[in-house]
Write a structure and sequence with these properties.
By secondary structure, this protein is an all-alpha fold. It contains ten helices and no strands. The longest helix has 34 residues. It is globular. The termini are far apart.
Length: 223
């Protein structure tokens, strides 16, 4: 059961600011917490609760801005947004947890084997998702009239915004695994490889004049 007294809101908002300005500080705080509590994952549900609240507010804002303001439509948008955040998070966390434990761990014959906690892998997804939320929910919303126009400039700006947001997602995820002392750093760097694919998709979308903002929002709205 999630109770308000259990949630350290000040610490959570501090982490969110760090994720936008200096994400490595979040994982330094995580390392210090591990030394005192002997676990890498958060024991506080506040981060997930606040992100879900932000998603609900953003969904309502987009519904009104793009002409889907009925109660049923807004409820559907909120449900889809939170389901995507949690559902994709479960899939990404499970994949990262399995890959890290199967291929990245340092094995010592004379010490206790350490493993990546699944909940920590989910925390990494949450950390990486928040800057993406700011870029693709907040910033995009503020510039909707420009980004949804038919001009090439709109396509260029929208695609750059999406490319930066998803690249930053992978960078923050990479940092989360890099800070674990029992993982091989040379192998963890492979988690940055998807950024190269994002770069290729960015060029392809520009060449084909596909607006990433219009493309993404068309799954939820008639544009």
């Amino acid at each position: 059961i999630i109770l308000y007294p259990q949630m350290d809101l000040e610490y959570t908002f501090t982490q969110m600011v760090y994720l936008l300005r200096s994400p490595s500080k979040v994982y330094k705080l995580t390392s210090w917490r591990n030394q005192t509590k002997n676990q890498w994952a958060r024991d506080d549900p506040a981060f997930v609760v606040i992100v879900c609240f932000f998603l609900a507010v953003a969904s309502v804002a987009y519904g009104f801005a793009l002409g889907n303001a009925s109660f049923s439509s807004l409820f559907r948008l909120i449900l889809i947004s939170i389901t995507l955040f949690v559902g994709c998070g479960i899939c990404v966390a499970t994949l990262g947890w399995w890959v890290a434990n199967s291929f990245f761990r340092v094995h010592h014959s004379h010490s206790v084997e350490q493993q990546v906690e699944w909940m920590y892998a989910f925390d990494i997804h949450c950390n990486a998702f928040f800057p993406l939320f700011v870029a693709l929910y907040v910033v995009q919303y503020l510039f909707l009239p420009l980004l949804l126009s038919e001009s090439f400039l709109a396509t260029l700006i929208a695609n750059t915004l999406y490319a930066v947001a998803f690249s930053y997602y992978h960078y923050v995820s990479f940092l989360g695994y890099m800070f674990l002392p029992f993982l091989r750093k040379d192998r963890v760097t492979s988690m940055l490889y998807p950024i190269g694919f994002i770069g290729l998709m960015y060029i392809l979308f520009i060449v084909l004049n596909i607006n990433a903002a219009r493309f993404a929002l068309s799954f939820f709205f008639f544009l």
